[in-house]
Write a structure and sequence with these properties.
The chain has a domain at 40-89. 43% of the residues lie in helices and 8% in strands. It has helices at residues 18-27, 56-81, 90-94; strands at 34-37, 85-88. Strands 1-2 form a two-stranded parallel ribbon.
Length: 95
């Protein structure tokens, strides 16, 4: 006899936004959700790319927000939204 949960056949891809994972978990708490994180998400176009803004003070504010976001994601956001998995960009781990 084989038992298969109806949730097993469903897959959900989670973007960088924490709010979507929280909404999915609210609707269906038995689903497995994951959060993808990329360093320098606020201040740079990509991990090793140019800054998003040319204004110096705005770039430094964005860098501070990036540090805060990284602290929050690793510290308490995963617990708040109820993530079961965490994806980290491989290029930032291997460098």
């Amino acid at each position: 006899m084989s038992f298969r949960s109806p949730s097993v056949a469903t897959a959900t891809a989670q973007p960088f936004k924490e709010s979507s994972a929280f909404q999915v978990r609210q609707r269906e708490p038995h689903l497995v959700t994951g959060l993808t994180f990329r360093q320098w998400y606020i201040s740079r176009e990509n991990i090793f790319g140019a800054p998003r803004t040319a204004v110096v003070w705005r770039h430094y504010v964005n860098v501070i927000l990036d540090f805060w976001l990284e602290w929050a994601v690793f510290g308490w956001v995963w617990y708040l939204v109820g993530n079961s998995a965490f994806l980290y960009i491989k290029d930032s781990v291997s460098r």
